[in-house]
Design goal:
The protein has helices at 6-9, 14-19, 54-65, 70-83, 127-137, 145-154, 165-175, 245-250, 253-262, 267-281; strands spanning 4-5, 32-33, 46-50, 104-109, 115-121, 142-144, 192-197, 203-209, 230-233, 237-243, 290-296, 301-305, 311-316, 319-324, 326-327. It has 331 residues and is an alpha+beta fold. The chain has a single domain (2-327), classed as (Glycosyl)asparaginase (Glutamine Phosphoribosylpyrophosphate, subunit 1, domain 1, 4-Layer Sandwich), CATH 3.60.20. The structure holds N-hydroxy-L-asparagine (SD4).
Length: 331
């Protein structure tokens, strides 16, 4: 077998590495190998998440630092936002659909390409944990609506009313005009997609949301759809999305980004291509925000969006930062 370096194998160019906002000791993770399987050494854990969600990345980092695996890290990280009633785009306190019902979507994916999802689930604060149970305890990948809720209750989750007074009042106000107009960069604090690499070099991801505010009853976006809102391939990297789900689904955005990284693009380059693919297919792209973030097997990260204003949190040994994303319209 030809001798080669993983860096070469992964196709990462120097330019690509420079383009990445965070480069974590790429050289240290490069070792010569006789086999075609890349061997990684001195792995440094990293967690990234859509939007400025320091409490969530902090929690995930805590798990990674206690020798926790990336799956536990992403689950426990996004649970912070699900429980936070001041985040009106995720979990408890989420904005309702146009009928006043809070319906949640979430998914999770691990290093072995196992995945689980719940869509259109009501009355459960932690849909990501229900998604994990779907992954681990059922022969299925996705459960929806009442079936998902019934499964959650069987698994010991408590039924709770997720519509807070604040979200209810805003919805009643919205009903006066009932104009459905997705807001760009709503709160700068939105759907949370999280990607992590642990000390073993294994990747996992999770994504959770209450979806677009005042959506039609029954509407499901990209966030719980494996390949669209989230995708992990432990040989390559992971990607996750925030923003107008319909546009992300049409290009299977997160899967596309992981495949672009497989072909040699850096996480940054792959996110840019993912957004540009959406722009090419949608004349009205300026009406919507889409943000992608990605991580590769070496812990390099990237992010890109349509409108300025999107950012993502990165926690690594180099620190905990809110990284403003570059954007198509801000270039
Ligand atoms: C959805 N992608 O349901 C989610 C919403 C979102 O920023 O991410 N908003 O389409």
């Amino acid at each position: 077998m030809e001798r080669r370096k993983f860096l070469k194998n992964s196709g990462l160019s120097t330019a690509a590495i420079i383009a990445s906002p965070l480069v974590t000791s790429c050289k240290e993770t490069t070792v010569e190998t006789e086999s075609s399987t890349p061997v990684l050494k001195n792995i440094h854990p990293v967690v990234i998440a859509t939007w400025d969600v320091p409490n969530a990345t902090n929690k995930a980092w805590e798990v990674l630092n206690k020798e926790g695996n990336s799956l536990d890290a992403v689950e426990q990280g996004v649970m912070i936002e699900e429980a936070d009633v001041t985040n009106q785009s995720v979990g408890n306190g989420g904005r309702p659909d146009r009928d006043g019902n809070v319906t949640l979507d979430a998914c999770i994916m691990d290093k072995d390409s196992n995945c689980g999802a719940v869509v259109y689930i009501e009355n459960i604060v932690h849909p990501v944990s229900v998604a994990r149970k779907v992954m681990e305890d059922t022969p299925h990948v996705m459960l929806a609506g009442k079936g998902a809720e019934k499964f959650a209750i069987e698994k010991g989750f408590e039924k709770e009313n997720l519509l807070t007074e604040k979200s209810k009042e805003e919805w009643l106000e919205w009903k006066k005009t009932s104009q459905y107009q997705p807001i760009i960069n709503i709160e700068n604090h939105d759907t949370i997609g999280m990607l992590a690499i642990d000390k073993n070099g294994d990747l996992s991801g999770a994504c959770t949301t209450s979806g677009m505010a005042y959506k039609m009853a029954g509407r499901v976006g990209d966030s719980p759809i494996i390949g669209a809102g989230l995708f992990i391939d432990n040989e390559v990297g992971g990607a996750t999305a925030t923003g107008m789900g319909e546009l992300v689904v049409r290009t299977v955005g997160s899967f596309l980004i992981v495949e672009l990284m497989r072909q040699g693009k850096s996480p940054q380059e792959a996110c840019e291509e993912g957004v540009k693919r959406i722009i090419a297919k949608n004349k009205n792209y300026k009406d919507f925000q889409i943000g992608f973030i990605a991580i590769n097997k070496n812990g390099e990260t990237g992010g890109y969006c349509i409108h300025p204003g999107f950012s993502y949190r990165i926690y690594s040994e180099e620190g905990h930062i809110n990284q403003p994303s570059t954007s198509y319209l801000g270039e």
